[in-house]
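My main concern about presentation is that the manuscript never shows what a single data entry looks like. An entry of this sort, consisting of the sequence and the corresponding backbone structure tokens, reads as follows:
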Amino acid sequence: MAFLRRFGSVFALLMVMVMVSLAQSTMAPLRNIMYLTGQHPVVPDVGLSASITHVILAFMQSSVFNEDTPDRSWPIFMSVAETRSKFAPSIKVMVAVGGWGDTQGFGVAARTAESRLRFARNVARMLNDTGADGVDIDWEYPGGNGEDYKQHPNSERVWEIDAYPLLLSEMRTAIGPGKLLSAAVPGLTRDMLAFTPETEPSIMASVDFLNVMTYDLMNRRDIVTKHHTGVQLSLEAIDQYIKNGAPAEKLNLGFAFYVKYFRISREHQGQCATRPVGCATGLMEDPETGGDLGKTGGFSWHDDVPGDVKESFAKALAGGSYDDNGGGYYFYDNKEGIWWTFDTPTAIVSKFPSIVRTKHLGGVFAWGLGEDAPEFRHLRAVNRGLQTLGVERDEL
């Protein structure tokens, strides 16, 4: 009897080990999504891009899909076939529709059952004609807070909150289960007007994943300095989507392969010199029109640094600091009165254990691949972060 008990215990232990091994072997790999833009259509060699699971071509305008035009062409800067040829055979190629400032076409599409059906059918036609694996909907601010929120206040767009999930549902029906459907969604909680506990479950029923734009978390509407890709602000965004009903495995954390800077008003520069994080900036947006007052700027790693900030940016690269509280790399140039905020490769790697693993996310994405050329230092950092999580999972 003792032998049987010992044998039973050993057998049970072996079964547990087998189950754990099977679970690990069937664990879905993390998504590693890269937007490829017409502004920077640069692709690294296949060895460096091997970790990329999805490429999203950006953008087609939303208004294109509101017209019933037979035998139409689909305007995109690079064909799906050409895109596939530049990556590993397993790559999924998607087409992004919309983008920052593209709200009118989506408003037309979402208005009625008939317009939603027309839009969805045209999306399905586009996928069939181009051979793309899916579509990414970049209606970034349904319900309001878009670029034109002063001209068209949020009160005019309350109806979009209920219409947005209906449009996604119509698209899911039109493209079927064999094609991917995703959406780029706000990273600031103040902009998540259409993502409520009431609407989010139906949104998630339609999409394969959400690309949470955890960047531009400081923009011209802010009046204090903060990290535009900060860890704490990113966690707040992820937590809010999960709280409202999004499964964590359907969320992707966003990385910014570009730099942002903000010019501090003269009257606040002294305060920023002593306390750079969280200091007042002064107005950066016209309170009447919502227009840019010329206090903000940005550029990708592939761009030439603007001449008027070139010297200041060199100081930011050489003398910046990492804020352990907010979780972000920054530099305040007291001489020029410029606040710099961007991710270094080290900062990117750190987000994998602190956000992706902690929140059990399904993947990451970046805007954008070519923006990181020619050295692709930040893509390499994403690869290192993915490898780190792979090691940790194997050791479970």
User: Anything to note?
Assistant: The longest helix spans residues 2-25. The longest strand covers residues 31-37. The CA atoms of residues 200 and 337 lie 41 Å apart.
